[in-house]
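Need the bound structure for protoporphyrin IX containing FE, inputs here:
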Amino acid sequence: MRPDLDVLAGHHDGARAGRCPTQAPLPDLLFALPDNLIVPRPSPSPRKRPRMTTSSIDLFCDATLADPYPRYAELRAQGSAIHLTEHDAWALPRYADVRAALTDPRVVSSLDDIALAPEADRDTPAGTVLACDGPDHARLRRVLSRQRARPATDALTADVHRRADMLVRELVERETFDAARDLAQTLVADVVLDLMGLPATTRDSLIGNAAATFGPANGRYAAARPAAAAMFAFLNDVVTPDVVRPGSWLATTYTAADASGITREEVVPLMSTYITAGMDTTIHGISTAIHLLAAHPGQFASLRNRRVTADRVFHEALRFDAPIQAFEGRVTRDVTVDDTRIPSGERVLLLYGSAGRDERRWGESADRFDAHRPDSDRHLALGAGPDLCAGNTLAVLQARAVLTALARRCTRIRPTGTAERAVNNVLRGWERLPLDVTPDGRRTA
Ligand code: HEM
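Answer from helper R.:
Posting the output first, comments after.
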């Protein structure tokens, strides 16, 4: 075990003399380096004491959740690791540090510790792939590895596009609809529940609970707790091997338990991870992309004219407004981020939302939605390293299907009425997104 590590990946904001001579001067150097960016560091000289930067920003108050980006900019300007006094946790707001922490699991652990509310961590049952590390994490991820792999997702492509196109066709005939509920939520729930092997009637028991209990123990957490408990009760009591469709993801999970790949107790937590991690995130990602296209008609035209792909639009939307804004873990050893020492055992918040707007990584246009951005898929909104989103190809497939169908069937989309944000401690997206569309008269079939 190396006693003194520097989590720093390459601080693009300039080298401090004698600190990081090989990494600092080149803005793009981060991407010339291998994934494992954690490099051994000599102990800091006794003359150079670690700095501790603090902030009293409450990342989870209503005002910040309504528009977190100015607060993130303040944190990024303050430094690489800032102690948030309000949450007794360290924020990593810059792209390079979030990426470095994600790609070296030895530094940040999610073992039983993924929410800022200790109550929520206590509620998290063993077997949640999000809240474990090392061999257990690999064992749980393996259960559905075949189902998640690209050949399996590719096999779903035609069906997901057909579903999206049928739904969009029906909605576009109305000319006004709610793109969050009628479109994103309907499609994602249908696709994910079908894959899971659950009937569509289970939808209301499972939607809207995702990640609701992450974040601190505030009123939002308290309000969300009963719904999360109800979801676990539903999965425990109602969902059985007889209820799920043979060959589905949940059937595979039960089979893994029968084959001793996982324990019977791990079945419900594992399936709950896929449901909570897979539905609201994707719904928010898709509704965010649609909102941004509606607000930028020129970029919608680019999508229609195929000057930009639906994948590119979606990735840029994830960069610009990450559906999961932050995720929490603990540092497993003393680490030095830039010149700040974070002692072992402290909580850290990886600010995905802030990383997507880091001007050190994305340049002066970081705060601008630009579907033509060539490298938007390097965002961290889907995680990275061993915790890379296990449903990333499925998420992209669903978004591609929806955005392609919209571009095919509408000549114009624009916001109408009042859009409502979905307010959640860590998720960001739209609860309601009324849209007015102009059908492309040439598309009747
Ligand atoms: C736009 C949509 C999505 C976003 C933004 C997203 C984001 C993420 C992120 C950031 C993580 C890593 C969390 C961490 O730091 O530990 C994650 C993990 C995960 N995601 Fe997604 N996700 C999306 C869609 C999906 C879908 C469709 C599924 C599956 C149906 C899914 C299943 C999972 C699972 C099981 C994990 C845990 C992986 C692990 O810890 O090994 N996600 N997701």
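Comments: The CA atoms of residues 315 and 377 lie 5 Å apart. The two ends are 63 Å apart (CA to CA).
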